[in-house]
Amino acid sequence: MLLSAEHITRTIGARTLFADINLTLYPGDKVGLVGRNGVGKTTFMKIIGEPTKGKVPAGGMCVRHWGEVGYLPQDPRIEQNADLTKTVTDHVLSSMNLDAERDQLAELLAAMEADPTERAITRYTAAQERYADKGGYTAEDKARNFAVGIGLREERLKAPLTELSGGELRLAEIARILFGSPDALLLDEPTNHIDTDARLWLLDFMRNYRGGLIVISHDLELLDESITRVVHLDEGRTFEYKGTYSQYKLSREADETRRAKEDVTREAEIRRMKTLADKMRGQSAKRARAAKALDQRVDRLKQEAPSSIARRKEASYKFPDPPHSHRTVLMIEDLAKSYDDNDVFEGLNFTLDRQQRMCLIGFNGAGKSTLLRLIAKLTTPTAGSVDYGVGVSVGYYDQEHGELDADETVIENARKGLSGFSDPETRSLLAKFQLTGDTVYQNVMTLSGGEKTKLALAKLVAGKHNVLLLDEPTNNLDPASRDYVAEALDSWPGTVIVVSHDTEFIDALNPDFSLVLPEADFSHWQESDLEMVALA
């Protein structure tokens, strides 16, 4: 056994996410943890990613690890105390402490050469053997292969972490966690920030991984190709199925059909017995006792009703019609941005009119998010200008959810910027994005990534903008929610500039233009651009 989780329970305020859940993981297990946004998948993964070292805390929860467990959170970030002067390659090596051991080996070699005593030779020889046993002499090549495989460009591997973009830092952290070769891996949305080639590399890695694996992903093809067991988390309970994701879907549909038939039969039997018991009441003592026995049988039948997966609540995402503006909404002239000695892009020129859509394309670090922030006037250009047309109101969706206050509740966040909205209107808006019940009183820091995305989109919708800047808006959304957002945007008669690796989402959006960065290549959209979206 690699991991054991017993009696796992989590309550946030008045809302119980899940209760008394048990899970075990053995070598070779490939588990897909699935469920709607907000049911607690990420919270559950965080809990089981931290062992309780055999201690049983309040409530009887206990998590035990046997061997090394690598945990990739939904939004991987480099630790605050990490040495940011390290190169990407050394950061990847650090997961096995091989960078430090290499440097120590060099120091011991220098000491031995300066004073070749028996003690110095013994210390160097022992350190060299340890380093070789851990694969140190081939580790740098392996680390580079991991970093390039997950999507970092070769020329960036010698760069210090301080020079990397946010997207590149995430990739470096993913490579570090995978390179550590742990006995078990817990991966939360591992494909969120990677391109198609990196996704294929990761899929191959997961197929060949011999340890225990638990993965949360809305990438259904990835789940189908890499797992052998599904744990469905819903309404605070888990339902387990053997097989691939497609096999799970078929089994679940069959279960739901069978349970629906059983429910009909059970309800008919309950009605029959209740009717019979009512007829017997008020007659002889013998019949009264029979009626009581029938009442007890009815109660047992109600209690025996099997738990079933709750049916999904339909969403009704709708973007209100944008306010009127001048025909030309955005004018970019000779725009350039650089940080110290790093030129992100330069010589950028384009104009967008009402209702036009543009997709930004480029590798991680090419400046896509930077350009959106420049257009939103959240940062200043090194050169050039960004001008809005008359009557233009720009709304910006930040993939980091920086516009949300983590210490405030959902409804408190929603109220900000919603001038003229009453509380019932605010709650009605949140409900359209499936944020209902006690969820609206939760602190934002307790939300899942998908719920944070929905809250940010709800605020964007209420802002009455006519230009939307969207930075990876479908990250963390389950497939159904992603489709709802795509349909809402497709019918919205405003201007959209979007960054996304999601080819289905971009295809549904029907862009008019593409802008390739850092080359500053602005052109009419072509079908071949969709292939570039997948590769970027």
Descriptive overview:
With 536 residues, the protein is α/β, with parallel strands linked by helices. It is 40% helix and 21% strand. A 6-stranded mixed β-sheet has the order 5-6-7-3-8-9, sandwiched between helices. A 6-stranded mixed β-sheet has the order 14-15-16-12-17-18, with helices on both faces. Strands 2-1-4 form a 3-stranded antiparallel β-sheet, covered by helices on one side. The mean pLDDT is 86.
Q: How many angstroms separate the termini? A: 39 Å
- Structural category is alpha/beta
Q: Can you tell me the overall shape?
A: flat
What oligomeric state best describes the polypeptide chains here?
single chain
Q: Approximately what portion of the residues adopt beta-strand conformation?
A: 15-25%
In terms of per-residue confidence, which ranges show pLDDT below 50 for 5 or more consecutive residues?
none
> Which strand order spans the largest sheet, edge to edge or round the barrel?
5-6-7-3-8-9
Summed up, the helix count is 17
- Fraction of residues in H or I helices: 40-55%
Work out the radius of gyration. Answer: 28 Å
Based on DSSP secondary structure assignment, what is the total number of beta strands? 18
